[in-house]
Design brief:
Elements (H helix, E strand, L loop, with lengths): L7 E5 L3 E2 L11 H14 L5 E6 L2 E6 L1 H9 L4 E6 L4 H13 L6 H14 L4 H8 L3 H9 L5 H8 L5 H8 L3 H9 L11 H11 L2 E2 L41 E2 L2 H22 L3 E5 L7 H10 L4 E2 L4 E3 L11 E4 L8 E6 L1 H4 L8 H34 L15 H14 L2 H10 L9 H11 L2 H16 L7 H13 L4 H31 L1
Parallel strand pairs: 2-4, 3-5, 8-9, 8-11
Antiparallel strand pairs: 1-5, 3-4, 6-7, 10-12, 11-12
């Protein structure tokens, strides 16, 4: 758009009509009243910007000033007149709105959408014009996906931008579900972390944890393969910058449908092929009625957890392995290595046979072993109760820092690590060096770690905990100090680049203000 030249004229208010394309639709009435009082006392310091029409003039920029002038019944106002086409009008209005300091992110979202729908702009064009990153534009555009209820909360400042972006990723039907579960104990909206946790647990799913093959295009033909689906975090990383783990599926119904189809296929395969696999279930969870009736008609016995079998955790080293397939419960649809219980094995035994007597003796010994474990648990409970009443836990200086304190400190830090990092650094630090000594061996190895080895644990816990903090808070300041200590992160370069961007922005603002002031004087 060509530079607007100075062309001032006094125009009657009745000749000026408001624009239908102005992206700004909400106005603070109190603010307009205050502006009208200022205009009444000092005059209109900044002229309105209009273009000529067949019936007079159409307002391009300055609707807030126009409303204030009407409040005090001004007959005419100074205007700047420019012949502009519709495309140029829209661009002028958009730029003016985006330069406001108090523009709401949702208004930015609506404006960017308007630029794309009516202004023939692309994402890259918008980013260049307003000096923002493409990621910023994409994230703002995603806010248009919020349903009416969430938008209302956002406008009322009952949710912040981070919460709005989390919700905007979801389909509107899932946004409604989150809204029904979004209240915290005080009646407000849960924190962004709590909302994300609810979504991760109840709506989205890690594709890597799927029990079906995500690359299978034929499982549900209409849905196709997960790798080609846009409803996953990996399909657009700009909209999911905080999702550091593997792909997450954001279509719960599709993911559930694929899971159920896979489970049914596996069960049919086990039944029809008579594979050496038992169908197993949890006695504390319901089983699908249709499946229960089907198995009953076929005369297929389903083993019940604890009654008929026990699962084997870890590597199954037996020569004659027995597998089971869960038809309900937490591990629904997964295979497991199982061990038949003595009760199941003893069903066909003679009570006085050698095998039966051996089984009964083993049962007695097992019970005795468990009783010894309970003895240890009772002693531990008494220790905990006694500790809670000591001054060493309540009075500062009563107990000095010692090896036991350091052990607690190191264990807290280790437990604060996320599971993937525990696996990664556990191997690097040989944390299972004394695996044969079980938990005591783990603590022994933890105490052997040097300060430098502990540093990698401390730094990662600090990074994961504080990375989302705002830069003015102590957590973010501490994280910056850590980054500075690395010596490899060009922080000064980051600040210099951002300062250059800020300088250009401020320069444009000053230039615009200067031109407007000069136009009034002339």
């Amino acid at each position: 758009m060509e530079t607007i030249t100075k062309h001032l004229k006094a125009v009657a208010l009745v000749e000026i009509s408001t624009s239908k394309t102005n992206p700004r639709s909400d106005f603070n009435e109190q603010s307009i009243m205050e502006l009208s009082e200022s205009i009444k006392e000092n005059g209109l310091l900044q002229p309105l910007f209009v273009r000529p029409t067949d019936k007079g003039y159409e307002l391009v920029c300055g609707e807030r000033r126009l409303r204030a002038c009407k409040l005090i019944d001004l007959k005419s106002v100074p205007v700047q007149i420019k012949n502009l086409n519709d495309q140029e009008v829209l661009e002028a209005q958009i730029i003016e709105n985006l330069e406001r300091e108090d523009v709401h992110p949702l208004r930015e979202a609506e404006t960017f959408k308007l630029m794309i729908d009516q202004g023939n702009y692309g994402i890259e064009d918008i980013a260049t014009k307003i000096a923002k990153s493409e990621k910023f534009i994409l994230q703002r555009l995603s806010l248009n996906n919020l349903n009416a209820a969430w938008k209302k909360l956002f406008f009322k400042d009952e949710i912040n931008l981070s919460k709005a972006l989390i919700i905007a990723r979801l389909d509107k039907k899932y946004q409604k579900e989150v809204a029904e579960n979004a209240s915290d104990w005080s009646g407000g909206i849960k924190s962004a972390k709590q909302l994300q946790s609810y979504i991760d647990s109840n709506i989205t799913a890690l594709i890597s944890k799927a029990i079906f093959n995500p690359l299978n295009e034929k499982l549900i033909k209409k849905a196709g393969a997960c790798s080609n689906c846009p409803k996953r975090s990996g399909a657009n990383c700009s909209l999911f910058p905080d999702v550091k783990e593997e792909d997450r599926c954001f279509d719960k119904l599709c993911f559930s449908s694929k899971t159920e189809k896979h489970i049914q296929t596996e069960i049919d395969s086990i039944i029809n092929n008579a594979e050496d696999v038992y169908l197993i279930r949890s006695k504390h969870q319901d089983t699908d009625d249709e499946l229960t009736q089907k198995l009953k008609k076929l005369g297929i016995n389903v083993l019940v957890n604890y009654n008929d079998f026990e699962t084997i955790h870890g590597k199954d080293k037996r020569k004659n392995k027995i597998r089971g397939f869960w038809i309900n419960g937490y591990d629904h649809g997964k295979y497991a290595s199982i061990r038949l219980t003595k009760k199941q094995e003893e069903k066909s035994m003679d009570p006085k046979s050698k095998e039966s007597v051996t089984a009964q003796v083993e049962k007695i010994n097992t019970r005795a072993k468990r009783m010894l474990e309970l003895d240890v648990e009772k002693v531990h409970k008494r220790i905990v109760e006694a500790m809670s009443d000591t001054e060493e836990l309540t009075v500062i200086g009563k107990h000095k820092h010692c090896d036991a304190t350091e052990q607690i400190n190191r264990l807290i830090l280790w437990n604060a690590l996320g599971w993937p990092k525990k696996e990664h650094y556990g191997k690097l630090l040989d944390i299972d060096k004394y695996e044969k000594d079980s938990h005591a061996g783990f603590l022994k190895r933890l105490m052997e770690l040097t300060k430098d080895e502990m540093a990698i644990i401390i730094n990662n816990v600090g990074f994961d905990t504080f990375k989302s903090s705002l830069p003015m808070y102590s957590e973010a300041i501490a994280l910056r100090h850590l980054a500075e200590s690395f010596g490899s992160i060009p922080i000064k370069d980051f600040e210099k680049e951002q300062s250059a961007i800020a300088s250009k922005r401020i320069s444009r603002q000053k230039e615009r203000v200067s031109k407007l002031k000069k136009s009034v004087k002339s």
